[in-house]
Amino acid sequence: MKTVTINPVTRLEGHGKISIFLNDEGNVENAYFQVPELRGFEKFCEGRPVEEMPDITSRICGVCPEAHHIASTKALDAVFHVDPPPAAKKLRELLYSAFFVADHTTHFYVLAGPDFIMGPTAPKAERNILSVIAKVGLDVGSSVIKHRSDALDVIAMIGGKRIHPICGVPGGVRKPITEAQRAKIEAIAESEVEFAKFTLKIFDDIVLGNKEYVNLITSDIYATETYYMGTVDDRNRVNFYDGKIRVVDPDGIEFEKYSPADYQQYISEHVEPWTYLKYPYLKKVGWKGLVGGKGSGVYRATPLARLNASEGMATPIAQAEYKRMYETLGGKKPIHSTLATHWARLVELMYAAERMLELSRDPDITSPNVQTLPTAVPDEGVGSIEAPRGTLIHHYKTDEQGMVKNVNLIVATVNNHAAISMSIKQAAEGLIKKGEVSDGILNMVEMAFRAYDPCYACATHTLPGEMPLDIRIYNQQGVVTRTIRRP
Amino acid sequence: MIKNDIREMGLTRVVVASCSPLMHEPTFRRAVQSAGLNPYLFQMANIREQCSWITENRELATERAKAIVNAAVMRVNFNEPLEVEKIPVNSNVLVVGGGITGIEAALQIADSGKKVYLVEKEPTIGGYMTRFDKTFPTLDCAACILTPKMVSVEQHENIELLTYSDVTDFSGYVGKFTAKIRKRPRYVDEDKCTGCGLCEEKCPLSVPSEFDCKLGKRKAIYRPFPQAVPNVPVIDREHCLYFTKNICKVCVKFCPHHAIDFEQKEKYIEVPVGSAILATGFDLFDASRIKEYGYGKLPNVITSIEFERLTHASGPTAGKIQLKNGNLPESVAIVHCVGSRDQNYNEHCSRVCCMYSLKTAHLVREKTDAKVYEFYIDMRAFGKGYEEFYKRVLHEDVTFIRGRVAEITDVAQNPSEEGKLIVVAEDTLLGIVRRIPVDMVVLSVGLEPRKDAGQLAHVFRISRSKDGFFLERHPKLAPVSTAGQGIYVAGACQSPKDIPDSVAQGAAAAANVLSFVDKGEIEMEPTIAILKEEACSGCKICIGLCPYGAINFDESSGRAVITSVLCKGCGVCVAACPSGAIEQQNFTNKQLMAEIEAICS
Amino acid sequence: MTKPKIAFNWASSCGGCEIAIFELGTKLVELSNKVDVVFWPAIFDYKYTDLEAMPDKSIDVTFFNGAIRNSENEDVAKLLRAKSKMLVAFGACAYGGGIPALANTTTRAEIFTSSYQETQTTNNPEKIIPRTKVEMREGVLTIPEFYNTVKTLDQTVDVDYYVPGCPPVGAQVEKVLNQFVDGNLPPKGAVLGASDKSLCHECKRIKADRKITKLVRSYQTIADPEKCLLEQGIMCMGPATRGGCGGICLDANAGCRGCYGPLPNVVDQGGKMLSALASVFETENEEEMQKLADSVADPIGTFYRFSLAGSLMRRIKK
Amino acid sequence: MVIDLATRFEPKIVGFLCRWCAYTGADLAGLSRINYPPNITPIRVNCSGRVDPTLVLKALATGADGVLIAGCHPGDCHYINGNAKTIRRFKLLQRLLQQFGIEKERVRLEWVSASEGGRYARIVESMTEEIRSLGPLNWKKEMAIAA
Q1: DSSP letters of A74-92?
Q2: N or C: which end of chain B has fewer CB within 10 A?
Q3: Beta pairing, strands B582-584 & B529-531
Q4: D76 has a chain B CB within 8 A of its CB
Q5: Which helix (H) or strand (E) segment is A133 a member of?
Q6: Where are the domains positioned within chain A?
Q7: Cis, bond preceding B526 (omega within 30 deg of 0)
Q8: What are the chain C neighbours of B534 within 8 Å (beta carbons)?
């Protein structure tokens, strides 16, 4: 039997590792995606004072610490049965929207952009941010850096730090913002909205203007039928900060809609002995292995999944883009094509920027009343939020002194763990036939993977989407007959 | 030998493994120094007191000894040469307390030509001794031996006597202290008054005399007793008709020297001194605290000090030992250990009661025909001539009953007890409870720390032991020194003492003071806290910690500042400093860590 | 002159340290002209095969972030040590263990049982626990060994310099990178990109007198933004923590958690903070002392939040 | 019962003794030839208030099975109230050690006056026996096999 080992890098590195096993006909027998690391937050948070959790759990991920910090803070509200003042909730959401702007911007330009802007067949040497800047113009490059940096300034203003914010406390945030800060934030938000429009235009011109891509996006290789999950507001519109969790089936029919506090009735996690990362799945459907379709509990929680699981966006421009996307891609909901996730991400970028602007203009936002002191005895609470890479859940139980007794975390990217594995296998199957390994596999598999923007910061060590590849093909004697490397 | 090795082998560090550093560290340090090596490059390993002498287990002891020596060797690597700082000493001496102890100390020092400030809170010096009649065991009259000394204090050119005064603040450091003294107003000008006594004679108002334990009377303007030093009366504001009713002024009218001055105010003076001796003495146990003894309720239950006044020739009864009704007692009980050797009151032995109780017995026998019962727990007669005195009293027909008195009552159980005081006690020799009917009971009250001892300790920044008396530097090797350099304690303020011991300590303290006052300089222990300025973060954690106020915060530099002369080297700030900016010389972290590693590995 | 060759690597940590470098944005672009980045798996496409092929000491300086959590982290550390002239422990995790080292309050067995069996949503009837080597029908799959104790970088390989912080603040990162570019470096073993004084030194809050009569949990009170937090009874590791971060947490009305590690003359950050804190408990009464001591909710998590692996005790006894 | 002295576990105890009371008291025990197990090695300090908790952690981490801090009785301190600071630190230190899994019998704070040689001997004796029954702490080894 032949083994194709796709190693992001050698065994030494902590990146995910892909092994593809071929059968005697040289077709794909099986493909495994392994995650080699675990840190055990769920255990070592036990015994800590629960109010420290937002600061501790933000260290699960330095790429999306805001997500963990805010989810954790919301869990504290629940643990202490305290309702934050309006200003506090809005400040949290404002910080959070700024974070979405920064994160989605990074992904599109720095990580995913190259594939589209330079073209999938362009030599790898050109497929990086620098070439992108060269193509779209230097001013765009600096504009990307500026708008990302501005968004982080907003995070720092409200959160205290650019990385690992520390503003969250049960019942609110530690500090209000001044009028001067508000004005600055409003100015930034206005500019972010324009920037989002500009980004969507680039996508139109370069991506949608190119038939090749549209075909790619709609091709079967990248279509995986699964359930879709996302948080929605009372009108089933996408919401990042708060709401009910909605799940639609592969036909787009609402399958479940529940309050995050009840997540245990809907989500289970499967364990395999050959990877440190678990596989969440829909409890009511059950674990049927790494397969898609109605019969399998595998679901996705990505920007595309959020749009699929919703009925629209809560801000005007984003809503318009939402409709345009579905119409352009055949008018069917849900869209199963993994690559459409990139477009969905930009629709979310638009929403985040608009939401930022709304909140920066909200009269409550500078209210000095940003903290309600808890009075109830702490016991248990769930905090949930939409991270850029999926629905994030923090669940704590404490003793009456508020010392943590039990922690359960369902981390955003992990939601998609099964789907990612499937997409990789699928790409492999689609491209490896009779032992013939096309050079294309490299980039194709990579694109499938990158679409998820998988942030394995918490588990593996790549920044979102960046998965350098290296394929080796062994003959029966286990001798490398061929090596395909990038570039 | 060590000296030779240092010279010949050019040793840079020396470790001696032998006895406790408390014994011979100074000796070896001197030796090392005389060989030209800094004495602090020497380290002592104590393998005797705390190793070889505490076990039979040779094997283990050897292991331990190795560890101890190893620790010393590792440590000595990090020892640094330290210079002993010498600071000039002001030769003036402050003596607090004008009892026999303070008087002795003051005279010794003054005679050597040094200036002494003697502070006494009462209107006169002399202390308790002025109220005693005879003193054990020699039975010579207290006044006869005390009065001359009081007088020479008054006349001594080197002694500035500050009576009716107290020390309210004591700042600075050894060799350079400043004592703040409060002089309370006498309302009599000490310079003008000649002590003729006319004012007392003419004063219309009589009140009970504290000096006589309220057994006798005094006037509103008074001297506690005729031989008071200074021989200047004081006006008692509480009672004086001028102060209470704004009338009278008889004293003003009659004073031939116009010494009466109702306008006097309390005065504060500051005096510079290089050292101080505390000889503030003791308080007597308040017998009324022991309800079972009925003191204060049963008229003829009196304390030993009251007895002293009764038997004193110039006392209220002119020395007649009598009952409240004037009759002579037919029987007298003397009760030992009142408030002493008793968990409920004071655990300590007051040391003097046994002997003065014997004296009491003797005086009763000598002056009356009364039968005397002496209730004791153990008879302690340890001083020179004491045992002999005990024997003597044994033959004076005194009944000794061994047992602590349980109760003193006037409730009779049979006719023979009617109108008597019944002393109930278990006779531990006979093993029976005895009820002895008597006319008078003398309670031999114990000695306690002064009520204000705590406050005084605070003013002088010295420590007290559990029993509340001032704490000496070392119970055996430095009995009159304290942890506070330049501050000494003597007499009963350190622990209960009789007159001979108190006088001895007074002299000892004087000698201690003179030894460095004479040198004109004093050596500071170099094991003090040093601030590494560049490392101080100005977090202020240490500021409040120093019990000697040696650490202050300098706003301009934003740093702590340690006044090394004030530092006594406890190291509390060193352990606390979160920046690790404070080190204690000869107890640096490096040295201690090296010891730990050597011991543990 | 030839540009210095530098490398970045990421072991057991959240990635915030790499973001902190990424955060330099335009400055990073400028900097990248002054150096050759020969290895940075997170940002550019380099492979360990290339690294292994490099001659020893061919990298001028490697910035290593993350603690040593598993066998893979250790192997990477050793490989990079061999290839680098200078190795820098970058960030709280590599320096003192950081948050991941809080796992030293538990054990490998407990973590596995918790993660793969006990957590509410886990459905694992066969009680499967990941193994380093698994025989599959198609072949063998391997994953690294998860250690029982988290180690710091210098407990694993020799380290030349340390850069504290979770993550190091931008200004300091820039300063440090330039120090290496310009080659003006203090003696080996030094801590870079931080102050030599405690956070109190740069704290703008008013410090009155250091007397602590009560300690409250942060959620029990709204902190006065002007006064020293400790004096308000709010835990702040400032006195025992290196400055250099600019006191951003204090400005945000939050107490310092100690991510910049111990001061130059201090062996054990936690032990020192404990000593300093208890020293200023304002009471001579033993019961009150006990009460104050008990009001420190989680001593290890408080005094060793970021430095447990690098502390004297390193882990709990189990 | 026969105890094989060769194999019997002999606790290694580090003692921080204040120079005024505890150390003098320990000397007195020796001068009075009072027997107690030679399992403690004294380190002399001026005042128990000098004992930085870090030193205790250092001792335990380096291989001590127990640590004794001994000073003057409360209210009896030669530095007025140095030992009061020791108590404050000790109470917090005990909580920390408990979290580290170190039995409270291993680290003790005791008061021994200069005249209490017997008391000192009894303390060391009881401490040695308690630790003996707890067994070695072996912190160094634990760390050596950290992985």
Answers
A1: HHHHHHTT----HHHHHHH
A2: N
A3: antiparallel
A4: yes
A5: helix A129-136
A6: 83-221+337-373
A7: no
A8: 196
Of the CATH numbers 1.10.1520.10, 1.10.645.10, 3.40.50.10540, 3.30.450.40, which one belongs to the domain with range A83-221+337-373?
1.10.645.10
**pLDDT, averaged in runs of 10, over chain A (487 residues):** 49 53 75 81 96 96 92 98 97 97 86 70 63 74 89 96 95 96 98 96 86 78 89 97 97 96 96 91 95 94 96 97 92 88 94 98 96 96 94 97 96 87 80 68 68 56 41 45 43
Q: Which of A315, A341, A90, A89 is nearest to A193 (CA)?
A: A315
State the nearest Cα–Cα gap between D100 and chain B, in angstroms: 19
Q: What's the distance, Cα to Cα, between the start and end of chain A in Å?
A: 28
Domains of chain C, earliest start first: 5-100+148-182 (3.40.50.700), 107-147 (no CATH), 199-303 (no CATH)
| Contact predicate A161/C249, CB 8 Å | yes
B599/D64 CB distance under 8 A: yes
Q: Quick one: tokens of B542?
A: 């240490």
Note the residue count of chain D: 147
Q: Is D125 on the interface with B (CB under 8 A)?
A: no
**Which residues on chain D are in Cβ contact (under 8 Å) with B61?**
38
Cβ of C294 within 8 Å of Cβ of D95? The answer is yes
Q: How far apart are CA C166 and CA C14, in angstroms?
A: 10
Q: Cβ-count burial of B417 within 10 angstroms (0-12 exposed, 13-18 middle, 19+ buried)?
A: middle
Residues 6+ apart with CB under 8 A from C215: C233, C234, C235, C292, C295, C296
Whether ipTM exceeds 0.85: yes
Select from C210, C240, C266 the Cβ nearest to the Cβ of B544. Answer: C210
Q: In whole angstroms, what separates CA B204 from the centre of its chain?
A: 39
CA dist., res. A393 & res. A90, Å (int): 20
Residue B60: HSE in the Cβ half-sphere, 13 Å Cα cutoff? 21
Residues from chain D contacting residue B572 (CB–CB below 8 Å): 47, 49-50, 79, 82, 85
Q: What are the φ and ψ backbone dihedral angles of A244, each rounded to 5 degrees?
A: -100, 155
Interface contact flag, C300 D96, Cβ < 8 Å: yes
Residue type, A387: A
Q: What is the per-residue pLDDT for A476?
A: 44
Q: What residue type is assigned to position C277 of the chain? A: L
List strands edge to edge, sheet with C36-39: C36-39, C5-10, C59-65, C84-90, C161-163
Q: Do D29 and B568 touch (CB under 8 A)?
A: no
CB within 8 Å of chain C, chain A residues 88-147: 124, 128, 142, 145
Taking the Cβ of residue C280 and every Cβ of chain B, the question of whether any pair is shorter than 8 Å is answered with yes
Tell me which chains share at least 3 CB pairs under 8 Å with chain B: C, D
What is the spatial distance between Cα B505 and Cα B105, in angstroms, rounded to a whole number? 8
Distance of CA C63 to the CA centre of its chain: 14
pTM listed for this prediction = 0.87
Picking from B315, B314, B324, B307, the residue whose alpha carbon sits closest to that of residue B362 is: B307
* Token pair of A400 as six digits: 């009456």
Domain at D13-146: CATH architecture: 3-Layer(aba) Sandwich (3.40)
Please tell me the distance from the alpha carbon of residue A215 to that of residue B162, in angstroms, as a whole number: 110
Cβ <8 Å between C130 and A272: yes
Interchain pair C263, B538: CB under 8 A: no
User: Best of D55, D56, D86, D89 to disrupt the C interface by mutation (most C CBs within 10 Å)?
Assistant: D89
Each residue of B118-145: pLDDT tens digit? 999 999 999 999 999 999 999 988 989 9
B86-88 and B42-46 strand pairing:
unpaired
Cα separation, B18 vs A306, whole angstroms: 81
